[in-house]
C-alpha cells in the first residue's frame, strides 16, 4: 500500500507549523511536500528590526530543510490547483513547471499587501511584507539621510528627511518607531543643516494607533511615539501620492521621498482562484479547518476564514498568532483524517499582544496584564525568542551587540526600488530585470511590467528620481 501524499502550499506561520506538526505525527509514514517560493520561514514580527539595522537579515529566517525533518521542500509558487484531479501545478524559480499530486492538501498561502484606490500609491509607495522590502527600506532611509546631509537646497534636505508611514496597525507602528530611532542614529554621523531634523509621520484613518488592540496598549504606543517626535495623525491618510510627496486627506501636501504602505493585508489570490465559497477573499472552512465539500482539503492562516467559536457569526482575524495555532490544528487534523481519527475544532484563547516600540520601550498585555516601558520591552523580546522556531541565540547576540555598539549605517545596495513594487502577490521575491519576478505569482497572475519596459512609465517608480534602475544588460 502506497504512503499517503500530503502537499502544503505556503510556509508562513500556518504552513510552517502544519508541516512541523505533520512531520512529527507522520514519522515517515506519509510523503509530505512543502511548496514555497523561498527556502526559509520568515519571522515577520522582527522584520522592522531588520529595516532598522538591529538584526541581520538571516536572523529572522529559519531554514525549512534544516528544521523540518522528513519534509520534502519544493521551491516554487502554485499557479493552479485542480481540485478534481487532486493536483497542484506550480512554477519554480527558474521557470520550470511541475505538478504535485496529493491525497491531502493544506492551503496556507498567506497574504499580500492590501491596496486601496489611491492615485499614485501603487507607483510611489513600498510595502513591508517581505525581506526584500525591509532591506530596500533600510538602504533607502540611509541614502536619504546621506543625501540630505550634502544637499545645498534646504527644501530638498527637508524632503529627504521626511518619512511617511501609512497605517498605524502593528507593522506601521513598529516601522515608525524603529525608523525614527534609526534616523536619529544616522544624523549623528551625518549632521544636517541647522534647524533640520528627521521627521516621521504616522497616518491612519482610525481614531488612535493600534485600533485593533486594547485601548491601554494603544495609549502607551501613542505616548511613546509622540514623545520621540513622531507626528501621529489619526483620522488622516493619503489622498494622492506623487513623485515629490503626498497629498493628505486634510489638504496638506507633505514633501517627501519616502512613502511606506502598511495599511494592511489581503489574502493571497490563489485562494479565490479555486472557485469555492469565500468570505472577503478568504476560503470558508469548517471549525476543523476542513473545506466544506472537499474532505481532502484543509486551509489555515490568512487564506482561511475560520469560524470564531467564541464569537458566533464572526471569523478569526488575520494575525500571526492565529495562523501559528491554526497550523498546528491543521496538521493534527490532516494526520487524524488519514487514520479515521476524530478531528478537533480550532479554538483559541487570547494570550495577549506585544508591540515593540524600539530601544527598551514596548507595549504588552500578557494574559491581560497591561505593561509598558522597559518591563514590557523585556517581555516582548522574551516572547519573540520563545516564539521563534530557530536562530534564538543569534537574535539575542544581535540585540546585545546593538545595545553596546553603534549601528552600521551603510547601504548594501542589494535591493532596488523597481524590484520591490507594492502591487505584487510575491512580496518575498525581488523583481528581476526585464519585468519578471524571481519566481511567478501565486494564482498565475501576470507580473506587472518592469518600469524600464512599461509603456510610458518612468524609469524608476518612487517619490523621488532614482538612479537605481539596471543599465541595459545589467544583471
The gist of it:
Keywords: FAD, Flavoprotein, NAD, Oxidoreductase. This protein is of the alpha/beta class and 475 residues long.
Please name the defining characteristics of this protein.
475 residues; 6-stranded mixed sheet; 12 helices; FAD/NAD(P)-binding domain; globular
How are the SSEs placed, and which strands pair?
Blueprint: E1 5-9, H1 13-26, E2 31-36, E3 40-42, H2 47-51, E4 61-63, H3 64-67, E5 71-75, E6 77-82, E7 87-91, E8 97-101, E9 104-107, E10 111-113, H4 121-124, H5 131-150, H6 154-160, E11 162-166, H7 170-189, E12 199-204, H8 215-228, E13 231-234, E14 238-241, E15 245-248, E16 253-255, E17 258-261, E18 265-267, H9 269-272, E19 278-279, E20 282-284, E21 290-291, E22 294-299, E23 304-305, H10 320-338, E24 354-356, E25 362-364, E26 371-372, H11 373-387, H12 392-404
Helix pairs in contact: 1-10, 5-6, 5-7
What does this structure look like?
This protein starts with a strand and ends in a 71-residue tail after the last helix. It has two domains: 5-37 and 76-111 and 266-338, FAD/NAD(P)-binding domain (3-Layer(bba) Sandwich); 121-263 and 353-444, 3-Layer(bba) Sandwich (FAD/NAD(P)-binding domain). It has twelve helices and 26 strands. Mean pLDDT is 90; it is low at 439-475. It has helices spanning 13-26, 47-51, 64-67, 121-124, 131-150, 154-160, 170-189, 215-228, 269-272, 320-338, 373-387, 392-404, and strands at residues 5-9, 31-36, 40-42, 61-63, 71-75, 77-82, 87-91, 97-101, 104-107, 111-113, 162-166, 199-204, 231-234, 238-241, 245-248, 253-255, 258-261, 265-267, 278-279, 282-284, 290-291, 294-299, 304-305, 354-356, 362-364, 371-372. It is an alpha/beta fold and 475 residues long.
Amino acid at each position: 500500500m502506497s504512503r499517503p501524499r500530503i502537499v502544503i502550499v505556503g510556509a508562513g506561520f500556518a504552513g510552517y507549523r502544519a508541516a512541523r506538526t505533520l512531520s512529527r505525527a507522520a514519522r515517515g509514514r506519509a510523503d509530505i511536500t512543502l511548496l514555497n517560493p523561498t527556502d526559509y520561514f520568515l519571522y515577520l514580527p522582527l522584520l522592522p528590526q531588520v529595516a532598522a539595522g538591529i538584526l541581520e537579515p538571516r536572523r529572522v529566517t529559519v531554514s525549512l530543510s534544516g528544521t523540518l525533518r522528513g519534509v520534502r521542500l519544493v521551491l516554487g509558487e502554485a499557479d493552479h490547483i485542480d481540485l478534481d484531479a487532486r493536483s497542484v501545478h506550480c512554477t519554480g524559480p527558474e521557470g520550470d513547471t511541475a505538478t504535485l499530486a496529493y491525497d491531502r492538501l493544506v492551503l496556507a498561502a498567506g497574504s499580500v499587501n492590501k491596496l486601496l484606490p489611491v492615485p499614485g500609491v501603487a507607483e510611489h509607495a513600498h510595502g513591508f511584507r517581505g525581506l526584500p522590502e525591509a532591506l530596500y527600506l533600510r538602504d533607502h532611509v540611509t541614502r536619504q539621510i546621506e543625501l540630505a546631509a550634502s544637499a545645498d537646497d534646504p527644501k530638498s534636505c527637508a524632503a529627504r528627511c521626511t518619512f511617511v508611514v501609512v497605517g498605524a496597525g502593528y507593522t506601521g507602528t513598529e516601522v515608525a518607531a524603529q525608523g525614527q530611532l534609526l534616523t536619529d542614529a544616522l544624523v549623528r554621523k551625518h549632521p544636517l543643516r541647522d534647524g533640520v531634523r528627521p521627521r516621521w509621520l504616522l497616518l491612519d484613518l482610525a481614531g488612535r494607533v493600534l485600533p485593533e488592540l486594547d485601548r491601554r496598549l494603544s495609549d502607551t504606543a501613542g505616548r511613546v511615539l509622540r514623545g520621540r517626535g513622531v507626528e501621529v495623525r489619526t483620522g488622516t491618510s493619503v489622498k494622492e501620492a506623487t513623485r515629490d510627496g503626498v497629498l493628505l486627506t486634510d489638504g496638506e501636501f507633505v514633501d517627501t521621498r519616502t512613502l511606506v504602505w502598511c495599511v494592511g493585508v489581503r489574502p493571497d489570490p490563489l485562494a479565490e482562484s479555486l472557485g469555492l465559497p469565500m468570505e472577503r477573499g478568504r476560503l470558508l472552512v469548517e471549525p476543523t479547518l476542513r473545506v466544506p465539500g472537499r474532505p481532502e482539503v484543509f486551509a489555515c492562516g490568512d487564506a482561511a476564514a475560520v469560524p470564531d467559536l467564541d464569537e458566533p457569526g464572526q471569523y478569526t482575524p488575520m494575525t500571526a498568532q492565529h495562523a501559528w495555532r491554526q497550523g498546528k490544528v491543521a496538521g493534527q487534523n490532516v494526520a487524524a483524517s488519514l487514520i479515521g481519527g476524530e478531528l478537533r475544532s480550532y479554538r483559541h484563547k487570547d494570550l495577549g499582544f506585544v508591540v515593540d516600540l524600539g530601544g527598551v520601550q514596548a507595549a504588552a498585555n500578557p494574559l491581560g496584564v497591561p505593561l509598558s516601558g522597559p518591563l514590557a520591552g523585556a517581555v516582548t523580546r522574551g516572547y519573540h525568542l520563545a516564539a521563534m522556531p530557530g536562530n534564538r541565540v543569534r537574535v539575542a547576540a544581535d540585540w546585545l551587540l546593538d545595545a553596546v555598539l553603534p549601528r552600521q549605517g551603510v547601504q548594501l545596495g542589494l535591493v532596488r526600488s523597481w524590484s520591490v513594487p507594492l502591487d505584487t502577490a510575491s512580496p518575498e521575491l525581488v523583481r528581476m530585470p526585464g519585468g519578471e519576478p524571481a519566481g511567478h505569482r501565486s494564482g498565475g497572475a501576470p507580473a506587472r511590467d518592469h518600469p524600464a519596459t512599461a509603456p510610458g512609465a518612468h524609469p524608476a517608480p518612487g517619490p523621488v528620481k532614482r538612479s537605481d534602475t539596471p543599465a541595459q544588460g545589467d544583471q
